[in-house]
Amino acid sequence: MKLLEVRDLRVAFPTADGVVRAVRGVSFSVEAGRTLGIVGESGSGKSVSTQTLMGLTPGAQVSGEAWFDGQDLLAMPERQMRRVRGAQIGMIFQDPLSSLHPHYKVGWQIVEMIREHEPDTGKAAARKRAVEMLGLVGIPQPDRRVDDYPHQFSGGMRQRAMIAMALALHPKLIIADEPTTALDATVQMQILDLMRRLQREFDTALIMITHDLGVIADMADDVLVMYGGREAEVAGRRTLYYRPHHPYTVGLLESVPSAPGVGGRLKPIPGQPPSLINLPSGCVFHPRCEYVMERCRVDEPPLREVVATEPAPGEEPAGALPGGDLPRVDLRRDGTHRSACWLPHTAVGLDAGVAAARRAASEAADAGAGAAEDADGAEPEGGER
Amino acid sequence: MSTSQDRADTPEDTAAGTGGDTAAATATAAGPAGAGEPLLEVDNLGKHFPVTQGIVFKRQIGAVKAVDGVSFSVRKGETLGLVGESGCGKTTTGRMIMRLLDSSFGKITFEGRDITGLSQGQMRPLRRDLQMIFQDPYSSLNPRQTVGAIIGAAFKLQGETPQQGTRAAVQELLQLVGLSPEHYNRYPHEFSGGQRQRIGIARTLALKPKLIVADEPVSALDVSVQAQVVNLLEDLQDELGLTYVVIAHDLSVVRHISDRVAVMYLGKIVEVGDRNDLYAKPMHPYTNALLSAVPIPDPAQRAGRERIRLQGDVPSPLDPPPACRFHTRCWKAQDICKQVEPPLVELSPGHQAACHFPENTTVSQTDLVAKAAVSPGASADGAADAPQAQE
């Protein structure tokens, strides 16, 4: 049972310079108790898509559907939306200082939200719940700190207070937009632990938006990689990290400095993210892609299922991790791994063999071998790592 | 200033001073083996920002001890990484090295010359040797000036006319950092974040500096662009023989770019070491915790490793904990940590840590206690139950 299902979401902002096409037909879904990670660089449309769901993008031209618990969020009148926002869908924003009101006490802000959505709750009862929530998220002496102002909290505590507020009404879905980007590494770990624990406790669905692949590896069950307002690749967490298909995903994974081969040169993706007003023709990633084919410049690839060289049921996938233990990559042929790229769907993985296969396929396609599917014969080795 | 004077008399500060001396001594000793002689030496440097009360008659009621006695040296051609969480004083240290902030105490030696007390006017000729790359490529470039004017200003301020003319020199710099000469007449808003950072780097390089302090040079950039700028910084170092002090909170970037890394916590350096040594065998518990907190973009490795969870937040630098500043969050803390400040001592060649109970080291506890110059029969059993290495 899907808690939230978004279909073909499109968001555009008319500006003086032209129409900014921030989101161009994105579909995703999330189930109760699961975490969907959305990764992408700035301008990939990851924040805009979730803000649109919450009705927080005034002035935007929106189309598509977003079914949450049997209701279409995008067709909902504002009055009804107000009852969903906060109560059934909680939001955690990146910058906790600017999302808490500096003039009101932290506790008061939580109390206000509880009473807004549940007018029957008395002041004292709401306050008691606010104290409870602050304690739950690990703020020391919550009965005293409830009367503090946001500036008296440290960055980590503010983010905890935001989480307490997001959870106060036990929402079914939490959207966390870069929840730990502004925090230090040690505090980030505390906050991620906390979110995981609370998610288990309340069986909440979580959408985690971030540009940090490390955080996604920690948190997400399924991952959606966005580029230029569209899905580049969708996959389960392990599949995405060990058997990525889209060259953009591969590039992202390889450009992280902690990747194997410390001390060597980093492998950046050349060029800059695209302008959303003048999008490149064909595949939006083609100006930066090292495997670009003629077809990529003209046709925009649809999101297609990736079915890689599949081991028989029960068989371990070939290739081992450097540590010796096998990555338990689930190779399901159930459409969970999809990628918007014209390269043959067998070219998945990160090692040199796959890179060569990708290159061969792209050259073969340009040499006039016809459609990219014909290049499937350029079989990559099964030696994924 | 008065606070620094007062503090210098306290025993723990003297201890820190000796620690600093050891640090400087070992650095020089390691010099011939390393890349070259020290270009920059920092000795017991500190910055206390006064906190005042009252409107007309301001009384000082305390001081934010942003940096409280750090000592390190940077050799020619090497990259020193300065890491730590927000508020640990890494940026303040960088700004003091640049003399953008006056230090409260301590000494900065650049090319053997004490630059701590120099006036603005005396500093100006030195500015060509000491340059800075700023974190935010949006606010560090004047939006009303063209790229040519921004980079050319460096020549103008130093009263220098390049042989080939300013315009040609600027265009060469643009090419050097991977931009095109046609960008000369454009304005900063026409560029993306990564390109702006390149403009900032070009400006930094205009006068062929010897030392560049880069304060979070890539943290405002997207991952894919981050790698481009890191590579550029490394190429420029090889080409022009630059020396870097890179300040960052991102441990993986620092690991990639640095030769040596110094870890700061609440205004003190807690550990300095060779990059590989420090990441493979961290000695200070804080370094250990910091390293284990970095999310690894690899689900399998993530599942395999043990993590250290620190409790609470970094204490306020207004009133830092006494003795070892980390003891309030340290899982190995003993009584001695609350009473005696551990000095920064060399525990293995080129690797120093300031801890009473360091990990990954063979130095016996009694030696350390002796070094810490304390008499009480300090608990030597602390090391026995030390958790094993994380990696």
UniProtKB/TrEMBL annotation, chain A:
Biased amino acid composition, Acidic residues: 373-385
UniProt cross-references to SUPFAM superfamilies, sorted A to Z:
P-loop containing nucleoside triphosphate hydrolases (SSF52540)
- Provide one Gene Ontology biological process annotation: peptide transport
Gene Ontology cellular-component annotations: plasma membrane
Q: Which stretches are annotated as coiled coil?
A: none
Q: InterPro entries under this entry?
A: AAA+_ATPase, ABC_Ni/Peptide_Import, ABC_transporter-like_ATP-bd, ABC_transporter-like_CS, Oligopep_ABC_C, P-loop_NTPase
- Location of the protein in the cell: Cell membrane
What Gene Ontology molecular-function terms does this entry list? Answer: ATP binding; ATP hydrolysis activity
Q: Which UniProt keywords apply?
A: ATP-binding, Cell membrane, Membrane, Nucleotide-binding, Transport
Tell me the superkingdom of the source. Answer: Bacteria
CDD domains according to UniProt: ABC_NikE_OppD_transporters (cd03257)
Region feature Disordered, mapped onto this chain? 358-385
Domain named ABC transporter is located at 4-253
Principal subcellular localisation of the protein: membrane
Q: How does it sit in the membrane?
A: Peripheral membrane protein
Bias type Low complexity, positions: 358-372
Question: Is ATP-binding one of the keywords?
Answer: yes
Q: Which Gene3D superfamilies match?
A: P-loop containing nucleotide triphosphate hydrolases
Spell out the family assignment given in the record's similarity comment.
Belongs to the ABC transporter superfamily.
State the protein's name: Oligopeptide transport ATP-binding protein OppD
Organism in which the protein naturally occurs = Actinomadura macrotermitis
Automatic annotation (TrEMBL), chain B:
Q: Please, one GO biological process term?
A: transmembrane transport
Query: What are the protein's UniProt keywords?
Result: ATP-binding, Nucleotide-binding, Transport
Residues covered by region (Disordered): 1-32
Q: Where is the composition biased (Basic and acidic residues)?
A: 1-10
The coiled-coil regions, if any, are none
Residue ranges occupied by any ABC transporter domain in the UniProt entry: 40-291
Question: What are the Low complexity biased-composition ranges?
Answer: 13-32
Q: Name one GO molecular function term.
A: ATP binding
Pfam families documented for this protein = ABC_tran (PF00005), oligo_HPY (PF08352)
Which domain of life does this protein belong to? Bacteria
Q: PROSITE patterns of this UniProt entry?
A: ABC_TRANSPORTER_1 (PS00211), ABC_TRANSPORTER_2 (PS50893)
Family membership: Belongs to the ABC transporter superfamily.
Q: What is this protein called?
A: Vitamin B12 import ATP-binding protein BtuD
Q: Which organism is it from?
A: Actinomadura macrotermitis
State which gene encodes it. btuD_24
